[in-house]
Specification:
Chain lengths: 333, 289
Amino acid sequence: MSVLSINHLSMDLPVRGGHRRVIHEVSLEVGEGEAVGVVGESGAGKSMTARAVIRLLPDGAITGGDITFGETSILTMGAAALREYRLRDVAMIFQDPRAAINPVRRIGDFLIEALLERGDSEVESTRVVTGLLEAVGIHDATRRLRQYPHELSGGLLQRVMIASALAIQPKLLLADEPTTALDVTTQSEVMVNLDTQRRERGLAMIFVTHDLELASAVCDRIAVMYAGFLVEDSPAAGLHHDALHPYTAALLASRPSITAREHRLVAIPGRPLSAFEVGEGCPFAPRCPFAQDRCRVERPLMRTVGDGRVACHRTEELRGQLDADTMRESVRG
Amino acid sequence: MTSIAPSTSAATPARRSRSVFRRDPVIIVTSTIILLLVCMAVFAPWIAPLDPNFANILGVNQGPSAAHWLGTDSFGRDLLSRLIYGARLSLLGPALIIVFSTTIGTALAIAAAWFGGMFDQIVSRVADILFAFPGLILAMLAVAMFGSGLVAPVIALSISYTPYLMRVIRSEAVRQRNLPYIAACYVEGLPARTICFRHLLPNVTPLLLVQATLSFGYALVDLAAVSYLGLGVQPPTSEWGLMVSTGQSSILAGQPQESLYAGALIVVTVVAFNLLGDRLASHQGKDRA
């Protein structure tokens, strides 16, 4: 049973003199307690997809398709229902905790605010958030509650943000690059913490990142986006040796290997396209080493292959060829 | 496991601003002057040596003496007592103007930032139109309609100060509104009222205080001008602007003290408020950077 289902979501954003498409017909399911990693380059539409789930959209955004949470349709619900949904069902962890927490209010006020809004008592809310701060690895919780955001380090502040997301006991967690703004050494601690808490509570999560490694470590499934398209949706476990889409394979191949000595890092030729630049064919065709004429004129649709789904005409033919070494060769060549 | 935060040594915003206050001599001096002036107004009956309205026709236009430290005016009233009592209306007037115009200005500014679009456009354009109206002219118009006194000029000047405060605060509110922490508030499902009052308002408050302080000086000058023109508080009530005006006739007689002292008090008060506002603004700028 899925907690959330995104059906043919598309989004256009206003630009001077018109609109530009940023998301093309994305369909994605998130099962109960399942973590889905959404990966892709900057501008691939991954953040926008996550934001659409909580309807935190830029002014003037036009959405198509449908997002349903349980029985309710997110994109069409009224203001009161939307507030209830945000207050109880879904929580978001932002990229930069320093920007996403009001600087002039105490940590405690920030944490209990949503709980008070739901009608919980102050004493009870404080007890809950104190427990949560300890759960996310902040030891002197009582003291921290009285402090201001600038007195905490980035890592601690992100834990506070995680605690605030957990406080409302949501069914779905949206994490938009929660560790990108952090120091490398604190990244892993915060990530481990988030992962543990999520698993303990059986929360579903959409995890937006451009770190494919990280996503496959903490997620059950990986959704790969490119230029506003969802190109692959596969179990995280098999992704490394059995990528379905050449883009996923190319991403995997461009990581430096720990064991082999590299003279030069492999890069995907060309530049990432913006969603609105995509022509009629496959969005990745201009950069794909396996592209054929068909790929350039006919847009591949999402279809089920094995355990995953992929939008590529040549998946079956290419299976077995998409391992890192072959990819490196073909990308170099 | 736990990352170490340098939290024990860091100060809270309140503590930090207090230390800024302690270190900046300009802030210390100006706020002390303002505090003294306010005390003077509040405790006038206890401080003033004589009844400010007691006229002694036998001792008009006297110079400083043991009985009258600053001398007497053309009715033989004690100048020191009149100046001390005069602080009451001279400070109350601008204070009311600032309270009214910041309250209305901030409410409109936050509403404009929050709703944006058409509402913002309308509020901003109406403010632009009000800018074209000099405050003094509006005050004179109000006096002509409602009669002289403190009320009419205060209302008129409150109206003409509102757009100034509104415009400055609106720009900051718009900036703050687009920061991620406000988005985080939406996502928490907080209602608009909570976001505006508990999140936006505290974040524009520093700017609000600076603007209110600076505007206080201007409001005092404007109100003194209204009184000087005879449109504000009426004699025999003492008020600094009025005293500058009534003292004029004695200047040619070689007795400039009434106008001089009242004018000097106006200048000192205005300069103190402006310097304080200016320093607060520059400290705020440093905090931002």
